Each structure stands twice: as structure tokens, then as C-alpha cells.
């Protein structure tokens, strides 16, 4: 009676094990049909591995093959009554190159002080174009006023925005400051015109897809402070990475027109970066 109970318990455990493993083939099959599955033992095979592959209990494999030890000899053909053919694993899909995602042009990047921290004038929404896609080039300027490097930054930014909105010396008033980013002498980056808008710094169609960066100061007469220079390099690298911009598409303002901008001390820094010789 005890032996029968143990056998029943063992059989039940086996069924539960197989059901739990997702196998429909359970139970104890003792009769071996002529078309029984076979498996040729390969190097590294174990009973449990074969059991899982064919969805058949280890005990059944042992019983059907009169195995007296666990070790399997490679090359031996095992009969697997009640087992089922392993389902071939689908081939892994070939990894496709994924285009580098570009950063959104919406919202102020976290590395810049938002224009809300300094601006007191609203953007003229009726006089501004959307960036209309991922920026693909960068133009560097200086503000051209030596006092911008000495005055309090907020004062300088408001002064420049006022000039741009009035259109002094320009064909028409701008919606707001024309540059997307301004770098102060101490190396801080300030948001000017939000990147979602096309800039107003390189004349007409030259503004399309063109991020405008302005360094405060007159770099015809002043040297570029190290902090300001290093931050320019940092920002150029960051923008190139974020938007997939080629360094060769970085120019100074005088690339587009005859002007002193970005100044004789700043221009070689810009060209050096663009040509990888900085
Ligand atoms: Zn300029």
C-alpha cells in the first residue's frame, strides 16, 4: 500500500511538473510506438536539458532507455516516447541601424537660463517663423559692444533685445532678440529666441535651420575670456550632438556678409572648432 501511494505521488508530481512547464504531454507512457522520437546526445546535453526540449519527464527518458546513470555519452541515440519535437527558436531579427534621435526644439534646454529669467518684453508672435525642422547649421556672433562684457548680463540682454525689436539699423523690427543662445563673459548660457523659432541673425534665408549664438562683447577689441571660450566650445559640441549638426556647418557671421562680426579674436576660435584644429 505504501509503495502504491509513493508511485501515485511520483506520477502526480511528474504530471504537475510537466503541466507547470507548459507541456501538454504528461502522464506516464510505457508503450513505445514505432515512430517514437529520438534524440542523438550532443556534447553538453543533460537529461534535464533534453527533458525540457522535448517536453518529456527525466524519469521517462531513463525508463525508456534503460539508463543506469545520469551521464550521457555523446552520440548515443535516446528514445523519447511521448515527447514532442522541439520548437525551433525563431531567428533573431537582424538589428537595423537606428537613426540617432534628435533633441526637440521645444522648450529651453536645461543648460541655458530661460529667457523668462531676464526678458521683460513679449515675443511678437505675428512676426516670427517656426524653425520648421531640425537645425542643421550654427552661426556664431559677437554682440559688438564692449560694454556688454562689463555690464550686468540681464542689462545687456535687455538692451540687445530692445535694439532688435526696434529694428535699429535693420530692415525691419525683429519679434525678439535674434539669437537663440547668448554666452556671457563668465561662461553662462542664456536662452534668447526659443529654438522652436527661426533665428534673426544671418539675413533672410540664411536663418533657415540656423542656430544663432552670440558672445557678449566686442572681440575686435577684446580677447575672449577663457570661461566664455570654453563654454562656446561646450555648447557647439552639445548642439552638434543633439541635432546631428556637422562641425563643418559652423560659421561666423561674416560667412554670410561683409561684417566685422564675430570679431578678429573670436573668428579663429570658431573656424578652429569647425575645422577640428582647436
Ligand atoms: Zn553677427
> In order across it, which strands form the biggest sheet?
5-4-6-3-7
Q: So how many helices?
A: 6
Give me the Rg, rounded. Answer: 37 Å
Estimated helix fraction: 25-40%
Structural class: alpha/beta
Task: Please give a quick description of this structure.
The protein is α/β, with parallel strands linked by helices and 278 residues long.
What would your notes on this structure say?
By secondary structure, this protein is an alpha/beta fold. Helix content is 27%, strand content 10%. It is built from six helices and seven strands; from the N terminus they run αβααββαβββαβα. It has helices at residues 2-20, 47-54, 58-64, 153-166, 226-243, 267-274, and strands at residues 37-40, 77-80, 137-142, 181-183, 189-191, 210-215, 250-252. The strands form two sheets. A five-stranded mixed β-sheet has the order 5-4-6-3-7, covered by helices on one side. A two-stranded antiparallel sheet has the order 1-2. β4 (181-183) and β5 form a beta hairpin. The longest helix has 19 residues, at 2-20. The chain is rod-shaped, with a radius of gyration of 37 Å. The termini are far apart. 32% of the residues are buried. The model is unreliable at 8-31 and 92-99 (pLDDT under 50). Bound molecules: zinc ion (ZN). Zinc ion (ZN) binds at residues 141, 253, 261. Zinc ion (ZN) is lined by residues 141, 253, 261.
